[in-house]
Amino acid sequence: MLMKNNKFSSLLKEWYEGNLSFDERMNIETEKPVIKKEETTEKQKIYLVKDVENAEEKLTSKGYKFFSVIFCVILAVILVGTVNFMPLFADDNTPTTNEVYEHYVGEGRDQTGAVNTVAGMILDYRAFDTLGESFVLFTATCAVLLLLEQSKDKPIKKRETFTYTNDPIVRLVVKLLTPIIIVFGIYVLFNGHLSPGGGFSGGSVLGAGFILFAMAYGEDFAAKVITPKIIRVITICSLSFYCLAKSYSFFTGNEFNGIHSIITPGTPGNIVSGGLILPLNIAVGFVVCCTMYSFYMIFKRGRLD
Amino acid sequence: MEDIITIFRILLLISLIVCAVATALSKRVMTALIIFTSYSIVMAVVWLLLRSPDLAITEAAVGAGVNGVLFFLTLRKLHLIDKDFADDEDGKIDEGVNVNEE
Which chain B positions have a beta carbon within 8 Å of A188's beta carbon? Predict the structure, then answer.
């Protein structure tokens, strides 16, 4: 509603559909300050468009500014107010220096069901931390895609088409190594709650395996096998699953509202144990793997497909 | 056995410092990048000795593998890799060994 008639949204749509080349996008962004240097207003700075004339849009931009300021003030008050309740820095009697450490090491195995205490910490006690890290990776992918993506009409420059597809040595070695690397990545991913490793380690190993695959077989072939749609679906499904799973344990973890979680830690040491830690590890690993792979493809080809 | 591990650890830490200083001081970007990758590999072993094998796996995969690949791609796009072999014909960069001739 807010951005319905806006020129910015239509521009964004054109960006998204890839109708404009990279240079055209840059022109549109930089044209505005060149033409209307003297009469640039705050409103135009927000929207980054050439000319906004509608009175309705003026109202919208005013409301946008007003509510953004209000929102920031409320957020700042909440955050600064929370600091008041925190214990003093480097105090000997704070719970962080005494109780938390003992609790994690002593009872972590029984409470989370994870033999690997680190996995129990980062995916059970402090799972929201890891959720934030996953979203940072997702945002990084989006930013790289926005900055480096080239349009489809533009042919890839010849001097940038260096490949190893014709090299017999590289091809043979990669053919032998890639399955082993990918299987090792999956092992690290699935054993995250039992042995050292977990989502980030396994995901990066998996991503490295796929990058090797794309290098040896050519990016054209790799883009046909692992299409952008697959990457998009996997990333979004993993992130949504993480959000939903952790929301569930957040609401059922409270003992006072009467709802109890049906997920049990299970027997520590089994492959299916640790409650939500195994699926969360897999979700984080998929996000990391997709991030690594799409970084490589965008850097090399300028686009994912 | 303990003595050997202590000596090994000291050697690793010294090579870590040497790698870090050499990365900053080397004049060619390519050399700096290769030294930086070796820094990551040494760091992976140090993580292993510090008893955090999960970080060692991540460091080896990201620091030595993916990071290096992304850096090399960037250098290739900036034409900083083959600077010694450049300027042979009308300023075009030498394409290397394997080029898709079209």
Answer: 57
Per domain, the residue ranges of chain B are 2-82
**Domain spans of chain A?**
7-84, 108-301
In chain A, residues with a C-beta closer than 8 Å to the C-beta of B94 are none
Other CB atoms within 10 Å distance of the CB of residue A110: 9
Contact call for B62 and A204, based on CB within 8 A: yes
In chain B, which residue's Cα lies nearest the Cα of A193?
B54
Per-residue pLDDT of chain A (305 residues; tens, 9 = 90+): 444 455 555 655 665 565 555 555 555 554 444 444 455 555 555 555 545 556 666 667 788 888 999 999 999 999 999 988 877 777 777 766 777 888 888 888 888 888 888 888 888 888 888 999 999 999 999 999 888 887 777 666 555 556 667 778 888 888 899 999 999 999 999 988 888 888 889 999 999 999 999 888 888 888 888 999 999 999 999 999 999 998 888 888 777 777 777 777 778 778 888 788 899 999 999 999 999 999 999 888 888 87
- Interface contact A196, partner B, CB < 8 A: yes
Residue of A nearest to B77 (CA): A160
Give the per-residue SS3 of chain B. Answer: CHHHHHHHHHHHHHHHHHHHHHHHHCCCHHHHHHHHHHHHHHHHHHHHHCCCHHHHHHHHHHHHHHHHHHHHHHHHHHCCCCHHHCCCECCECCCCCCECCC
DSSP helix/strand/coil, A162: strand
Contacts of A125 (CB under 8 A, 6+ apart): A104, A108, A112
pTM higher than the cut 0.80: no
Q: How far apart are CA A143 and CA B47, in angstroms?
A: 31
* Chain B contact present for A157, CB below 8 A: no
ipTM of the complex: 0.75
Single-letter residue type at B70: L
